[in-house]
Specification:
Elements (H helix, E strand, L loop, with lengths): L1 H16 L5 E5 L2 E5 L5 E5 L18 H23 L2 H27 L1 H6 L9 H12 L16 E5 L1 H55 L6
Antiparallel strand pairs: 1-2, 1-4, 2-3
Helix pairs in contact: 1-2, 1-6, 2-3, 3-6
């Protein structure tokens, strides 16, 4: 029961974390983050709105996140359905689904990390000599939403796109949940193997004692036939 409770808690936690930001990036024109399903949340002043070469929107697929969510949801439903029956087949199904969720969540991390450059490029200001870009920079400066970039006048800090703590938590939870659920059927199989070996060896262990008893009975003349 404890293993099922831990596994169910892990599945619920993983489902909730999927909707949190998994990767985040910041640049000269704002911030952007994405969850496991590829949903973007952008904060920007649209400096490059009138630019002749505006930054392209990052195309992030939510396939891996959806597969992770379906695996976790399937594992949770299987646990709930198996609470009364406690069948071995249910334990194997839960182990399979949670293992799939761990694999898919790791794949989601790798996929989103490969899209870090696209997220970063969304926050660019466009070509420096472009008239639309210059108009956007001037309007932003006049409205008090930022400084006008002049070479050597201000210090500017940049950061690359990075995976968030939510993404690391999701990977950790999925792996631990899978390890917990897989441990149960493996342990049951081990006990069954040990039990079957003991039963198979029992006749061989008892046979010498029976043979000695038969010999004793044959040598004892007072023993009734």
């Amino acid at each position: 029961m404890l293993v099922q409770l831990i596994t169910a808690t892990g599945c619920v936690l993983l489902l909730l974390v999927l909707f949190q930001p998994w990767i985040a990036a910041s640049g000269v024109d704002g911030k952007v983050d994405s969850n496991a399903f590829g949903t973007l949340h952008i904060t920007t002043s649209l400096v490059s709105l009138w630019s002749s070469s505006p930054p392209h929107r990052a195309a992030i697929s939510g396939t891996w996140g959806i597969l992770t969510g379906l695996s976790a949801l399937g594992g949770l439903c299987t646990i709930l359905a198996n609470l009364r029956t406690q069948r071995a087949l249910g334990s194997y199904a839960v182990a399979t689904l949670t293992a799939a969720a761990a694999i898919f969540s790791s794949a989601t991390l790798l996929y989103l990390n490969s899209k870090s450059g696209d997220l970063k490029s969304m926050l660019g200001s466009g070509p420096a000599l472009d008239l639309g870009t210059q108009a956007g920079l001037i309007i932003r400066w006049m409205s008090g939403n930022g400084d006008y970039p002049v070479p050597g006048l201000h210090k500017v800090s940049y950061s690359t796109a990075r995976l968030t703590g939510w993404a690391m938590l999701a990977a950790t939870v999925s792996i631990l949940t899978a390890a917990t659920s897989i441990n149960r059927p493996l342990r049951n199989d081990l006990f069954e193997r040990i039990r079957s070996i003991r039963y198979s060896l029992a006749p061989a262990i008892q046979s010498p004692s029976r043979l000695d008893s038969d010999i004793t009975h044959e040598q004892d003349p007072d023993h009734p036939m």
